[in-house]
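anyone seen this seq b4? input:
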Amino acid sequence: MDRDLSKVYDSMASTYAEHAADSPYNAHYDRPSVLELCGEITGLRILDAGCGPGLYAAELVGQAARVVCFDASEPMVNLARLRLGSSAEVLHLSIGEVLPFDAGSFDLVLCALAIHYANDRLAAFREFHRVLAPGGAVVFSTQHPTADWLRKGGSYFDVAIETDTWNREEGNWDVSFWREPLSSLCAAIFQADFLIERIVEPLPAESMMERWPEYYEKLSQEPGFLVLRLIKRQTLTK
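predicted toks r here
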């Protein structure tokens, strides 16, 4: 099945950008966890794959990284360009396609909450591997497969497209994504010649506790997202 699962973001780009800037799951759960796993990034060449409105890229630029980012949604690209100005290059590309960068162009690849929209996760990881310099790392986050299974039911081992409805004041959007078990995701990582250096099941930031206590309590007891740091396999074998 080959569907452009990111197309829905074209119609809700501005709404999503405003929401994600200070939402519990984005700003107080995923973003701090992903950025922490990136480590020290001053001076690094970073590719932000699936950058959305540029919220992560802005944090990277603020830490003196050299950033190139891209997104499949043209409205998102426009928002990211407005946010980042001349501080980062923003391109209109899709995760999983052949990227217009030389091999070894980046020290770090970041992909936050976007890999589950790629129809071919293996192709996406292989491109991340190609553009990553020796000694570099990939940091990505995705929806936790157990959380998806508990919400959706059926067999945990299914690999299939699921759809959530996001309700916002401005309207409702049906957002589709790939659901797969952890073994399937890890198989794609291994086949792309990566090893998992770290795997994190995030806990919510303390900043969530006062403003969204119900989310804080839930995410303190059960996982919502998964964050991984990958390194090239040959990094350990040399």
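Residues 95 and 124 are 6 Å apart (CA to CA). The two ends are 39 Å apart (CA to CA). kinda curious what u guys think
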